[in-house]
Amino acid sequence: MAFRAVHAEWGTVFAHLPDLGCGRSWEAVWKARPPARITCVECQHLMYAKTSHSGLRFFAHAPHAPDCEIARQGESEAHHLLKLELASAARDAGAHAELEVRAPDGSWRADVLATDPGGGWAMALEAQLAPITAADITARAEKMREHDVTSIWFSDRPRPPWLGAVPSVRLEQPEGAKHLTVAEGLVKFTGRGWSAVPASLTQLLTWAFTRRIVTHTPRTSLRYPQRSLATVWTAPQYITAETAHLEEEERQRRVREARLAALQREKERKREKIRASNKVTRAKALAEATAAEQAARTQPPGRLWQVARVFRLGVDQALAKLAAEHGVIATVGFSIGDPRYAGGVPLVDEHGVPAAVFNPDPGRVRGEVFLLLAGLLLIFPSKADQRRFENASNIKKKHRPIDGYRTEFVEIPVAGAARAWGGRSCTCATPRLVAKIHNAEYPAEPSEQMGPAAALFRAQCRTCGGKYEKPWRRTGSTPTNQRGRLET
Prior knowledge:
Blueprint: E1 4-7, E2 11-14, E3 38-39, E4 46-51, E5 57-61, H1 69-73, H2 77-92, E6 96-102, E7 109-115, E8 122-127, H3 134-145, E9 150-155, E10 168-172, E11 181-184, E12 187-189, E13 194-196, H4 201-209, E14 214-216, E15 232-234, H5 236-296, H6 303-311, H7 315-326, E16 330-332, E17 345-349, E18 354-358, H8 367-373, E19 377-380, H9 383-395, E20 406-409, E21 433-437, E22 440-446, E23 458-461, E24 467-468, E25 472-474
Parallel strand pairs: 8-9, 9-10, 18-19, 19-20
Antiparallel strand pairs: 1-2, 1-3, 3-4, 4-5, 6-7, 7-8, 10-11, 12-13, 14-15, 16-17, 17-18, 21-22, 21-23, 22-25, 23-24
């Protein structure tokens, strides 16, 4: 299909124009007798006028045509109709429009070349319905730009994959409408993002020819129901509005960051003040604990020291950890049982200064206990015990250091064979025991030696629910209450 040919007498004739562009009717070349002498503008081979089933008028090569680019195009009727629509809209927009214009060096051919009647500009209007890659269409647009010809690429297909890769527009024909309208590619800035602008094809070309719209790469989101585009058409004032919006966002971001930085500095200043205060109070608590340890050493080791040293699972591993990882040679403190250790075992160095506490009870952390533990290393018999202590401190934020506790744990090997009745063993630092005797529960406590009841019955820890396998003795003859708590 071709819309342009050369008449031997009238010059260039256009099939899509009512007067062929030379003041003649279509019938002057269509089925004329004798046949009109018209030739191809490309290869000068004879052509004849034809009309499609839908009434489209065009020129076709006579048989035995040479290898002509126009003959090779094989363009569909839909493609030709879109070219006619583009040409008609370009003329309505005030431009001179010519179909199938070839570059001077033959490197490209414009479907419709719209030019300024005053000779100020030239713009190719390309109807692209066949599949093409973004790279190929960009290369074709670059060839035109080398000849100072800008281009706009059009498609009326639903989702052309190349849309936005070059200056382009997707067209559609609404139901009941006679002409194509812009569906995608023309946008305006609405304060926070871009939204589509409805317009006719003639309006779009009028704005493009007069530079009232230009191509732009959006820097904010496009509020399209279909997709975002890399290149759009918009008015210069909307580009300015987007720039102002981005500058304002940047200004607000800097203000927020400055405010947050000031808050962070103030927070850090307060934390440093707290750290300085904590350093004093922790040093005082450590000095008092050291004095208590020195006083305890003037007396023979107590029962709790012996129980902790011999039967407390994990103490030896904790002492080994202190020596291997922290370079502290420590032993179990004589001041064990002092409430300031929250039921844990004090581990003191060779000078009697507390270096760590083994398995303190989070339920006993308060007041002076908190001040001491906050400055010492806390070692637990298992990862679960460490997590239990840390979770409890997170809940009781009043007794949580601003930089957190220093906690570690050791792995305790399984101790001895399990009793016949099975179950896990208690590893609590300060177990809360209850004795199971004849379907009743009686209060009990750890002991240096097995009591008479321990040979016949079992003890269980209320804290962890595990069986207690070390020496214990019953401390009362009255069963505990219905909730299972010891009467104290």
